[in-house]
Write a structure and sequence with these properties.
homotetramer, alpha/beta, Rossmann fold, N-(1-d-carboxylethyl)-l-norvaline Dehydrogenase, domain 2, eight-stranded mixed β-sheet, 55% helix, NADP binding (chains A, B, C, D), 3-hydroxyisobutyrate dehydrogenase (chains A, B, C, D), oxidoreductase activity (chains A, B, C, D), NAD (chains A, B, C, D)
Chain lengths: 293, 293, 293, 293
């Protein structure tokens, strides 16, 4: 199948590469053309603008950094929406606010185009290995056309429903689970440290017993090692995500007290000068409150 | 080795049985003698009182329901402390407040006896299979004598330090992790349900991706199935545990905001008439706040 | 002096009337012209658009409903900014987000105009009596020109600083104090009601002793009387205000946990069907949590 | 009338003095006899023990520091309960937990004695001036006998109901209102300070407009002046009080989220080394979170 891919950051690049490996023709574009070079060497075709990509395919994926870049790439001049044919699909993998997702849904619908949310869980190496988790939502016929493509980069697809926003919300929810697990572990590490127990022992106890999910192992390890300065994702990104989740709570009328506490921790981290450190530095706010240097 | 065991509820009974199977002579007692019958058939010896048990052994285990029952069995008339020889060990597996643990530590120390905290994670079937996790803390020489015994009922022993209270606190901490994971999942289930997504799909997404620890699988399943009426542990027990954790936070000077929120949910559950239902019914408080019936 | 006034809702109307009574020439405009009738009878002059108002004066006041209406009236077609001369002043009394206030500040500055924030505390009857409290911030020379005008409708002027946003933030802060006092009183009323004490007795105790500010007397009375259905301001307005305050906290990097709790109560109220009732209905969320009907 | 008074700290001493001034015969006792000297000079009679006091009167007041001292003075050897005749009244003005109040109620009832809760609001100078606020609850006939005596030291009596615990709870509630007003003001002072506004200006705005109760004026002033080191009441006392309130919430099944946040602030203050400073130092926790030194 001939598909488009817009946005070749490390995640998008890996996903587009998997589509190529899956035997698909892939038309790509990116603000910085050089990032496409090796994909072109593997057979991808470069187009000058998102609109150019969209004009050539019936399915275009996008993977952008945030709401603003997605808005620009979709509805800006030479954006996806201006090139996509009626009936064609835009499958967007960016982590978006519900408000932005709604703009995609409505904006494409006005043009007779179809928006599918295809959020992904996992980091670039997982994308390269085709081991992402895909969280998808949209019209059933669009999903059925996308499933084989999802299989190129995803080890498993979780379908949330027919409204694309359901996948956007599910993605925000799972990101929240990272943050709230960090807060939870931070409270536990801090009180035990204050009582004289090395947090590494608590970490071993957690991950050696019933709290051994990747979310515990990966973030817990960074926390007990105080590995803050080689950020997988910085505090500012965590704050952006939890604020989108809280905003979703506002739209849905669902109070989310754990999310509010995480937001406060991230604000405190920023005010403490830790904006650009890994968001597990949230632990330091809990330690500070507990009088641990 | 000859060891004592006081408290033959379902956990204590299973643990004592494992000690017997491990080839040890076990002297037991229990308020209701009938609960000891099959252990006696397997070779255990019954003593009339905790003191009688203690007088016959150098190591006595106990597994009681709470602070009050532990206080009574240890320091009451004919209690363990009155029978235990100087230098002998009381290894207590009950989930206790730090205040009660301190009374055990100090009370035994005054008598030249040794208190070891040997909290356990797991349910009775795990105990029967010798697959508990043991959280231990106490003097090194006492721990070294206890290790082979822990191996009878525990698949793994986690040692926290030389002060027995370190194990009590670690145990309270891990129980808190159950509750806070439930609150975390409840917020996620509720907001997605409000947005039209079946929580079972969210559960599959969590446990099919990075949130697949037993704490997610076991409690999450009960939650999405609204399985409240066959309680593994009721709200009242959850409340007792989280209040002990909060009290520990007070003693250590560590604010624990996630724990406070859980306490409020449990109070709300009790006021809603759910005191005796499984503590995952906390989900209903979150749903109620979100306007979901 | 000749001054302009844009926005003749009940507050704006009263403020413009006070300026007239103070002997000033007042040029007014309003979407609905009829609301200006009695002011015209008292000597005010009507202009067709905000720009028309601004062209005739060196000082224009505005009092609009929210961010969006202010944005439209100031920077929209025929807006204030398009009519105001360089060096002229726009004194805005609307309750705005910091983001909107910043747009006013920057947008006027680009045109060589001066934005002053002149938020007010009090209700329309106080405005009619010239008994508002004015919270002002802006350049000193602009403030000095405005002071005599503030005196027409305000019993007292509180100046926050030279950056207009300081007054916007102070206004959001004082609104937050209403909400957080309501939550505080709600917790007190609910627990005492649960214990069998009529909340009216608690109200008398509060207001008869050390908690006798207008914020206690006015809102507390509505609460104990369950006067929800004749709203001074509805839950939706409270939610809008507390979300602006929380957003300000985000911009300043200051966690505001009490504000987060109020937001959650308002969300709960909306989900419970109380969106349009007086925001003191927050009490019902606290009562509900406590098992009081 | 002949009345007893046990506990001559600064509050008790002033209250007993007012009873004397009111023309009553007063029998007093105190651990440190010297504190009674000037009362004896005014005609009071000293008794060696609380029981001795109780034996001579039909009404005995007490004003002790806390639960423990009250328990000792009432039910300890030579305690009030051992001297009080059946039908006689113990009017206790201490700030007590509900659990302790219940012990007084039940313990006196077993002996045919009557416990009345007669909590007071105000500081020693107000007591000396007879300007306390009295919060009373108990059996109607007991209250009717006490009213003239309350009038000696109180400017106004607020009666809560026939169960003495109602007054204990009301007193805890009003103390909570101090703390939660401090947290509320702290959030406001901190965010405005971060935005460049001198908190004194915010204080003037609050107290010059609708937030002008004594609770705002007295504590707000200490806060903006950073007057932490001449404590009216230290953090430890605030913590004790808010924990009693939270415990009452637990007994009544009423979640009190604002109280939990105050508790966390006080714990943080203690861990920061501020245990013995005035409890308005809570402001420093909010400032710290906001990155204000």
């Amino acid at each position: 199948m001939k598909v488009g891919f817009v946005g070749l950051g490390s995640m998008g690049h890996a996903m587009a590469g998997r589509l190529l490996k899956g035997g698909h023709e892939v038309v790509v574009t990116n603000r910085t053309r050089a990032k496409a070079d090796d994909l072109l060497a593997q057979g991808a075709v470069f187009a000058e603008t998102p609109a150019e990509v969209a004009r050539q395919v019936e399915i275009v994926f996008s993977m952008l950094f945030d709401d603003a870049s997605t808005e620009e790439v979709v509805f800006g001049e030479h954006g996806i929406a201006s090139g996509l044919a009626p009936g064609a699909i835009h499958a967007c993998s960016s982590t978006l606010s519900l408000a932005q997702a709604r703009r995609l849904k409505d904006g494409h619908a006005e043009r007779g185009q179809v928006y599918v949310s295809a959020a992904v869980l996992g980091r670039p190496p997982a994308a390269q290995a085709g081991e992402l988790f895909v969280i998808a939502a949209g019209q059933e016929d669009a999903l059925s056309r996308l499933r084989p493509l999802f299989g190129c980069f995803g080890q498993r697809v979780f379908e949330m429903g027919q409204d694309p926003l359901q996948a956007n919300l599910a993605k925000l929810s799972l990101n929240f689970m990272i943050f709230s697990t960090i807060e939870q572990m931070a409270e536990v590490f801090a009180i035990n440290e204050k009582a004289g127990t090395d947090p590494h022992r608590i970490f071993d106890l957690m991950t050696g017993s019933f709290y051994n999910a990747p979310v515990h192992r990966n973030y817990g390890k960074l926390m007990v090692d105080h590995e803050y300065d080689n950020p997988g994702a910085p505090v500012t990104l965590g704050l952006k995500d939890v604020e989108m989740f809280l905003k979703a709570g506002g739209e849905q009328g669902v109070p989310l007290p754990y999310a509010s506490i995480v937001r406060d921790r991230f604000l405190g981290a920023i005010s403490a000068g830790d904006a650009d450190r890994d968001f597990v530095v949230l632990l330091e706010r809990v330690r500070q409150d507990g009088g641990l240097k």
